[in-house]
Amino acid sequence: MKKSKTVTVAGLLLASLLGGVAHADDMLGSYVARISDRDHQASDGYALDSAAQMVRQDRANWHKFHRRDSDDQGDAWFRTNEQRADLQRMLERPGAMSASTKRAIVNGEPLVQVDVYENSVRVSILEN
């Protein structure tokens, strides 16, 4: 009987910890953006070489430079340069973008959806 109670308590503790982890990265919302040719270049004109840089530049073009593609939507999370730097760091983490998503962004002008969570982002291709 004692062992059963210990296992139950351990299970409840584990469930509460796992539940806490799941809630630690709640979804804040999403936006859609066309990662166009203008997003493949930094503000001062040099070519960007990573998908994370290009998605970040898309948000700089939206918020700072008002160079918006017709498919672009606004967001409430990446208004400042510091917030966009955070975006790039999150985009560079494993799991933020698949290899095929990265290739599509670097080699083309896809329409993407960016899902924004408290501590991470995830990018998926809507249209290649």
Describe, in plain words, how this protein is organized in 3D.
This protein is an alpha+beta fold. The protein contains four helices and three strands, in the order αβαααββ. It has a three-stranded antiparallel β-sheet, with helices on one face. α2 runs antiparallel to α3 (81-91) and α2 (51-63) crosses α4 (99-107). Residues 6-16 have low confidence and may be disordered.
Q: Per the principal axes of the C-alpha atoms, what is the gross shape?
A: globular
Proportion of helical residues: 40-55%
Q: Determine the structural class based on helices, strands and strand pairing.
A: alpha+beta
Average pLDDT level: 88
Radius of gyration: 19 Å
Number of DSSP E strands: 3
Q: What amount of the residues lies in strands?
A: 15-25%
User: In DSSP terms, counting alpha (H) and pi (I) runs of 4 or more, how many helices?
Assistant: 4
Report low-confidence residues grouped into runs of 5 or more.
6-16
Element-level helix/strand string: HEHHHEE
Distance between the ends: 59 Å
